[in-house]
């Protein structure tokens, strides 16, 4: 399954848990694995707290302090900081599906991580029975 996300900021974390849940429901799979894959080099995916929105704001601010926009990078496109952050977050995550539900922790949400927006982005989701 392929989902389109339109990001609106240069950098932002977007909660996509409901999209993954919808993919699970559509598949009819009650026990298995949901694979979320981001086919981009300047965007990623991560799982973290969705109770306090300040947490993802702080993650982004920490990443920006560690990897500022300009830092003597070589990549001519000028967005090396975006590539680095995307690699750190990762391009995929797996979530166990049990009894038709995503087996996430109480405070966990799945976040699409935009580091070079705004853009139209894709999220690929594969639901595997097993
Ligand atoms: Zn680049």
Give a description of the structure.
This protein is an alpha+beta fold and 130 residues long. It has one domain (2-129): YjbQ-like (Jelly Rolls). It contains 3 helices and 8 strands. Strands 1-8-3-5-6 form a 5-stranded antiparallel sheet, with helices on one face. It has a 3-stranded antiparallel sheet with strand order 2-7-4, with helices on both faces. A hairpin with a 2-residue loop joins β5 (92-98) and β6. Zinc ion (ZN) binds next to loops.
Poorly predicted parts: none
Strand content: 35-45%
N-to-C SSE series? EEHEEHHEEEE
Q: Count of DSSP E strands?
A: 8
Reported for the largest beta sheet, the result is: 5 strands, antiparallel
Structural class: alpha+beta
Radius of gyration: 15 Å
N-end to C-end Cα span: 18 Å
Find the CATH topology: Jelly Rolls
Helical content stands at 25-40%
Cofactors, ions and other ligands in the entry: zinc ion
How many domains would you count in the coordinates? 1
CATH architecture: Sandwich
Shape verdict: elongated
Per CATH, the superfamily is YjbQ-like
Biggest sheet, spatial arrangement of strands: 1-8-3-5-6
Number of distinct helices: 3
In CATH, what is the class? Mainly Beta
Mean model confidence by pLDDT: 98
């Amino acid at each position: 399954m392929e989902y389109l996300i339109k990001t609106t900021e240069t950098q932002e974390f977007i909660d996509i848990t409901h999209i993954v849940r919808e993919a699970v429901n559509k598949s009819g799979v009650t026990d298995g694995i949901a694979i979320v894959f981001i086919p981009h080099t300047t965007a990623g995916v991560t799982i973290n707290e969705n109770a306090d929105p300040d947490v993802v704001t702080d993650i982004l601010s920490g990443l920006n302090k560690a990897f500022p926009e300009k830092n003597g990078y070589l990549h001519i496109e000028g967005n090396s900081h975006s590539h680095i952050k995307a690699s750190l977050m990762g391009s995929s995550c797996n979530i166990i599906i049990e009894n038709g539900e995503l087996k996430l922790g109480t405070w966990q949400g799945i976040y699409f991580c935009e580091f070079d927006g705004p853009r139209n982005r894709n999220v690929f989701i594969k639901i595997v029975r097993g």
